[in-house]
């Protein structure tokens, strides 16, 4: 029987999915005849499952400020984030670069405007996500029926500059409120939209002169956002997403807003 | 691929780097220090990462080298016994009870660093044998024999721990 005994390395390779399918089927069949080896395979698999049970939660933790700071120091040479920024784990993921070149494997860099500084994505995202999280009804200026012009006047008055009021009705989202928020760059505007179920999408607009960023996807905590900028403002569309489909819908909404505001 | 895209690929690997570092070092502060150093090194050497190769393996390799340097440095100092500051979750889901998980955590802590590395890279991080060999800079055959010994070592330690626990309960 000893020649039939499965080798240590093959037992391990079975557990780790390193065998080719034919050999795997063979070994699995042998295991039925070799309870000792079968027990070992089960133990090894339990070890792996146990390691995941012990440590997988870490994958969902906020990125600690110390680690986030490493990215900061290598970007601009400036000290780590301001304290407020550190409170929110910021997380830019995925293929960025925007929809203009979307679908390309490699993403072309955004067009560079000479001498213009980089968009401060952290500041934008921290502020946009905070504004989204604390946008309760009573803090927003409610939008009366057909009050788009009124909202526009209200914001223009407080921001000192006209701003177009975007519409997301074709996506099933109604503008439910807007407000002006203090920002280091001067007054910022927030538009809050909600669908029939009350699910919110918000748009944060802050004054910022920076070089171009195409619509780019980012995650901050469990909030998803698409952000971009034009000549004198940065924008972030924020919502809480459940799946990739929602992400696609958010991207389409962002594109629509981008189109409406840059007309 | 633009530098920014590469940077974002590094950002996306941070959770995995942290999971491995915490499981390996068993001390969150030290683990995050290590991840911090890995990120700095990776961003400095970003131009050396070859497009089309595995970013994760590259980052784990950097981590392995930094960790090995740190361990060498420490072995010249006093023997530091790391505290296990990553206790298992209280409400362990699935088949594993909290007791079994804490047994596993304790047994992992007893393994040699070499055994813990190979077990975590393959059993937790899901690296292939070839990738693990690259990260650890050893032949694939070494990975396999080390892994085999590590699993048996872990199994033995868990069994001994469980027996002790049972005896304590019986008394």
Q: What tags apply to this protein structure?
A:
heterodimer; A: 263 residues; alpha+beta; 8-stranded antiparallel beta sheet; 8 helices; 8 strands; 18% strand; elongated; B: 171 residues; mainly alpha; 73% helix; globular
What does this protein structure show overall?
The complex is a heterodimer of chains A (263) and B (171). By secondary structure, chain A is of the alpha+beta class. Chain A contains eight helices and eight strands; from the N terminus they run αααααβαβαββββββα. In chain A, strands 1-6-7-8-5-4-3-2 form an eight-stranded antiparallel beta sheet, sandwiched between helices. Chain A is elongated and about 80 Å long. Chain B is an all-alpha fold and 171 residues long. Helix content of chain B is 73%, strand content 0%. Chain B starts with a helix and ends with a helix. The interface between A and B is large, with 46 and 53 residues.
Spatial gap, N to C terminus of chain A:
80 Å
How many strand segments of chain A?
8
Helix content of chain A: 25-40%
Distance between the termini of chain B: 65 Å
**Biggest interface pair, residues each?**
A-B, 46 and 53 residues
C-alpha Rg of chain A (nearest Å): 26 Å
What is the helix fraction of residues of chain B, given as a range? over 70%
Number of helices of chain B: 7
- As an assembly, this protein is heterodimer
Principal-axis shape of chain B equals globular
Largest sheet of chain B: none
Shape label of chain A: elongated
Low-confidence stretches of chain B: 78-95
In short:
The complex is a heterodimer of chains A (263) and B (171). Chain A is α+β, with helices and mostly antiparallel strands and 263 residues long.
């Amino acid at each position: 029987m000893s020649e039939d005994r499965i080798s240590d390395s093959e037992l391990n390779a079975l557990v780790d999915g390193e065998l080719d399918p034919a050999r795997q089927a063979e070994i699995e069949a042998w295991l039925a005849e070799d309870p000792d080896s079968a027990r070992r395979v089960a133990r090894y698999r339990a070890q792996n499952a146990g390691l995941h049970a012990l440590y997988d939660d870490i994958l969902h933790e906020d990125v600690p400020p110390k680690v986030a700071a490493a990215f900061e120091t290598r970007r601009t040479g400036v000290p780590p984030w301001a304290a407020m920024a550190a409170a929110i784990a910021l997380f830019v993921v995925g293929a960025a670069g925007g929809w203009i070149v979307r679908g390309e494997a490699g993403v072309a860099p955004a067009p560079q405007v000479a001498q213009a500084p980089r968009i401060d994505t952290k500041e934008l995202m921290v502020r946009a996500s905070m504004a989204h999280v604390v946008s309760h009804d009573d803090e927003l200026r409610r939008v009366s029926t057909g009050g788009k012009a009124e909202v526009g006047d209200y914001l223009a008055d407080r921001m000192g500059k006209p701003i177009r009021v975007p519409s997301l009705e074709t996506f099933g989202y109604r503008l439910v409120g807007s407000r002006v928020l203090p920002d280091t760059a001067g007054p910022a505007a927030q538009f809050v939209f909600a669908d029939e179920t009350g699910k919110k999408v918000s748009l944060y607009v802050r004054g910022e002169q920076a070089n171009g960023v195409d619509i780019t996807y980012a995650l901050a905590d469990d909030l998803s956002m698409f952000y971009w900028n034009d000549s004198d403002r940065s924008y972030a569309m924020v919502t809480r997403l459940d799946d990739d489909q929602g992400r696609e819908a958010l991207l389409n909404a962002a594109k629509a807003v981008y189109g409406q505001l840059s007309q | 691929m633009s530098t920014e895209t590469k940077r974002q690929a590094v950002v996306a690997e941070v959770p995995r780097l942290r999971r491995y570092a915490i499981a390996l070092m068993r001390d969150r502060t030290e683990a995050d220090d290590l991840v911090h150093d890995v990120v700095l090194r990776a961003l400095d050497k970003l131009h050396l990462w070859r497009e089309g190769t595995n970013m994760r393996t590259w980052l784990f390799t950097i981590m392995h080298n930094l960790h090995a340097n740190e361990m060498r440095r420490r072995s010249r100092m006093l023997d530091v016994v790391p505290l296990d500051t990553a206790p298992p979750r209280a409400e362990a889901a699935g088949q594993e009870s909290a007791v079994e998980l804490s047994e596993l955590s304790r047994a992992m802590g007893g393994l040699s660093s070499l055994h813990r590395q190979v077990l975590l890279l393959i059993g937790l991080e899901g690296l292939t044998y070839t990738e693990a060999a690259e990260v650890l800079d050893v032949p694939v055959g070494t990975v396999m024999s080390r892994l085999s010994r590590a699993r048996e070592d872990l199994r033995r330690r868990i069994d001994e721990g469980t027996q002790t626990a049972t005896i304590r309960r019986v008394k």
